[in-house]
Amino acid sequence: MMLKSMNVHFQQLFLNKKRTLGQLILVGASISLIGCKTLNNSKLNKTINQKISSRTTNNYFQGILIYDPVKKDTVYSHNSQKYFTPASNTKIITLYTSLKTLPEKIPSLKYIVKNDTLYMEGTGDPTLLHPYFGDSTAIKFAMNYKNVSLYLNNFEESRYGPGWAWEDYDLYFSPERNGLPLYGNVVTITNNDSLAVSPTYFKNQVVPISYGVNRELYSNTFYYDPQRRDTLESPFMIDSTLTKSLLEEALLKKVNVVQKMPNDEKQILYSVASDSLYKRMMEVSDNFLAEQLLILSSSTLSDTLNSAKARNYILDNYLQELEQPPRWVDGSGLSRYNLFTPGTMVYVLNKMYQEIPRERLFNFFPVGGLSGTLKGRFNGDDRPYIYAKTGSLGNNYCLSGYLITRSGKTLIFSFMNNHFTKSNSEVKQHMESIFEMIRDNY
């Protein structure tokens, strides 16, 4: 009996020590985002494991991290420290960069006024005469001055990002980057009984025939099938002469291109609400807005427009504690050179969740079953449960964001799929079954 009593005593001591150890682990997890993996629902985890390792999914690469920001605890993890091609999930870190560097309204121009001359340089603001935003703040401002001088040499960046697919040059989602974008850097062509071309500068450069491409590779010659009735958007090639001409057409006056700005202190002209750009970028996954937002961010750090300045600034000042620093080369995710882990995505999402009011933050993201790139997928039965950013390239599909469970808890997740040969639809269906399981059981 004494031996049995001693056994009971030692078992109780062991349990007490184990309980104390568990508390220490939870405290440690609050310091490190990922922390130690704690299985709050072993049956749920077992079911997810079975789905992840099923015969239909074991021939491509999957990475998942699901995190509870209130408990500061990992709900589920699989390959969460492995690197993946994120595609447009990259826009999540572009959003974070913008929120950290840009004011409430977009800086549209930097300028100096001397006598009757306006000297101005671009900041990368993508909204000027953009087909969606249609902003004309800078145009109206410049019209007030007799003489306008334009400085273009502050842009120190290539027109395309590293690793972009060259054959996308004529497609709407791949406009060139520059310091003073106009019209979204695309030609918009519609056919309502007659061709309407915007900007009108290109009207005589549109050939009304059916052709294999929308634009010539090395010239601004565009093709539009007169039988089609939908709108065509195709990027135009940019140089200083074209920017000058487009600006002169909009201002109805001559513009002088100068080689340097005066030495006086520069003023800043502001345009649209910054949140309107963020929402549009995230909701429809707009690559052009994402790229220009990084350039805009660099304009707040120096007078040189270069997206690498913005990327390095954020990594060095706000994300220096990342356990798996990303390979981050552009703002949009068009490049396959980008490499992020699910852990990094969740880290950034959690920082935004802690720092930004929930209503404002969730408003930036597509909503499952309701809006943007999630309109046709990840529906809630009676209310939305997914607020997340998609990322899609050939053979890759990623989704990262926020999941609301039926019990009212908010979880942060990143689910990355690379190198599959099946259809995107099958991969999404597989993901949806896992999300619904978590929604209904956590």
TrEMBL record:
Protein's GO biological process: peptidoglycan metabolic process; proteolysis
Pfam family, one: Peptidase_S13
Key word Protease present: yes
Keyword Protease belongs to the record: yes
Gene3D superfamilies linked to this entry: DD-peptidase/beta-lactamase superfamily
Keyword tags: Carboxypeptidase, Hydrolase, Protease
A Gene Ontology molecular function term of the record: serine-type carboxypeptidase activity
InterPro entries, alphabetized: Beta-lactam/transpept-like, Peptidase_S13
Membership in a protein family: Belongs to the peptidase S13 family.
Protein name: D-alanyl-D-alanine carboxypeptidase / D-alanyl-D-alanine-endopeptidase (Penicillin-binding protein 4)
